[in-house]
Amino acid sequence: MMLFDAIALTGLLLDLFALLYIVNGFSHAILLRYTSSKYGLGLQILGLCCAWVCDSGALVVGSFMGHAKLAPVVSPGKTLVGALAGVISSVMTVLVMFALPQLSDMPVIGEWTHELLPAPDVVPLLHQIVLGVVLGVLCIVGDLVESYVKRVAGVKDSGAFFPGHGGCLDRMDSFLFVAPCLYFYSQFALP
């Protein structure tokens, strides 16, 4: 006699994973904002921008140029070329965001960017590129994990909050993986 029903156990494990996945990501986003160096808000904005630009870059380039599938069972629409484009988009986003403090005297950019992130002379270029690659890879992993959870749960979208974009979790899935990385980056790598 089985002590646990396999389907019920799978459902329980999925619920626990989803809870930990969401709580871990958002709690690190809060920690990033309030316990990090003076750049917590800027790093949150950087993480959100990287997540959204990576997703968009992967979608656009992958839909036009991608043929080889990244994870056909989990998410049939994601391609290797799209993933590479997403990582490159993430690197470009990091480089632009770290360049903003130098451009703060321009009227379009404004003074608000001066204290957003450290100046590029504080964080070396190689450091920025590596951060962009890591964030890009985490964005793709976050997207794949959320796609897997939805596939196992048998749903297409995680909600209807953003029509045409899935639910709130569909917009934040990548950021939930990026936020812990940025938190530890702020604690150990930033001055």
From TrEMBL:
<dbReference type="GO" id="GO:0004605">
    <property type="term" value="F:phosphatidate cytidylyltransferase activity"/>
</dbReference>
<keyword id="KW-1208">Phospholipid metabolism</keyword>
<protein>
    <submittedName>
        <fullName>Unnamed protein product</fullName>
    </submittedName>
</protein>
<keyword id="KW-0812">Transmembrane</keyword>
<keyword id="KW-1003">Cell membrane</keyword>
<keyword id="KW-0472">Membrane</keyword>
<dbReference type="Pfam" id="PF01148">
    <property type="entry name" value="CTP_transf_1"/>
</dbReference>
<feature type="transmembrane region" description="Helical">
    <location>
        <begin position="125"/>
        <end position="145"/>
    </location>
</feature>
<feature type="transmembrane region" description="Helical">
    <location>
        <begin position="80"/>
        <end position="100"/>
    </location>
</feature>
<keyword id="KW-0443">Lipid metabolism</keyword>
<keyword id="KW-0808">Transferase</keyword>
<dbReference type="GO" id="GO:0005886">
    <property type="term" value="C:plasma membrane"/>
</dbReference>
<dbReference type="GO" id="GO:0016024">
    <property type="term" value="P:CDP-diacylglycerol biosynthetic process"/>
</dbReference>
<keyword id="KW-0594">Phospholipid biosynthesis</keyword>
<keyword id="KW-0444">Lipid biosynthesis</keyword>
<keyword id="KW-0548">Nucleotidyltransferase</keyword>
<feature type="transmembrane region" description="Helical">
    <location>
        <begin position="41"/>
        <end position="68"/>
    </location>
</feature>
<keyword id="KW-1133">Transmembrane helix</keyword>
